[in-house]
Every structure is written in C-alpha cells, then in structure tokens.
Amino acid sequence: MSNMNQVMKQAQALQRKLAKAQEELARQDVTATAGGGMVTAVVAGGGGEVRAITIDPQVVDPDDVEMLADMVVAAVNEALRAAKQMENELMGGLAGGMGLPPGML
C-alpha cells in the first residue's frame, strides 16, 4: 500500500509541474522573421496561438501579393516550429525526471 501512495504522490507532483510548465509557456512569446526581417510573426510559447504579425510597408507590393503571403507563411511557420521546440525542451525535462521516454508527455 505504501508503494501505491508513493506512486500517487509522484503523479500529483508531476501534475503540478506540468501545470506550472504550461503556464510558463503561455507567458512566453516566440518571434520569427522572414524576408530579411520584413515580416515578423509572434506566437505563444506553447505554439498554439499567433499573437502578432508585423509587415514592413516597403514589402507591400500590390503587384506581388503572393510574395508577401509567402513571407507571412514562412514567418508564422518558423515561429510555430521554434515554439514547439521550446515546449518539447521544457516538457522533455519533466519526462526525463520521471524516467519516461521522450514524447510521452
């Protein structure tokens, strides 16, 4: 019975750590650029929400809207990738502390 209590305590501690890590991620922003800094995307650290897009007016060309769209997509995708990497690093540390294989959290 003592072993089961220990497992429950470890599970509760892990839940608290996960909740704290998720709160920390939500407070952090990740920024990425495209087109030499002409387009900037900011996403939440957890990678689930785009918070801002900034476009330098010099890149707005009515005759080449496709290029602008490509730069926005590139900036957003890079910011999401970086946010996911940050999340994996933070959560991976928690999984390692519990002896879980990567990707289990």
Short description:
The chain is α+β, with helices and mostly antiparallel strands.
Question: Describe it for me?
Answer:
Helices cover 57% and strands 17% of the residues. By secondary structure, it is an alpha+beta fold. It has one domain (2-98): Ybab, Chain: A. The protein is rod-shaped, with a radius of gyration of 19 Å. The model has no long low-confidence stretch (mean pLDDT 84).
Give me some keywords for this one.
105 residues, alpha+beta, Ybab, Chain: A, 57% helix
How are the SSEs ordered, and which strands pair?
Layout: H1 2-27, E1 29-34, E2 39-44, E3 50-55, H2 65-98
Helix pairs in contact: 1-2
Give the beta-strand count: 3
The residue-averaged pLDDT reads: 84
Q: What's the level 1 CATH class?
A: Alpha Beta
Q: What CATH architecture do you see?
A: 2-Layer Sandwich
State the CATH superfamily name: Nucleoid-associated protein YbaB-like domain
Number of helices: 2
What is the H/E order? HEEEH
Indicate the proportion of strand residues: 15-25%
Helix content: 55-70%
Largest sheet: 3 strands, antiparallel
What is the CATH topology descriptor?
Answer: Ybab, Chain: A
Radius of gyration: 19 Å
For the record, the count of structural domains works out to 1
Straight-line N-to-C gap: 26 Å
| Overall geometry | rod-shaped
Strand order of the largest sheet: 1-2-3
Structural class: alpha+beta
Low-confidence sequence ranges: none
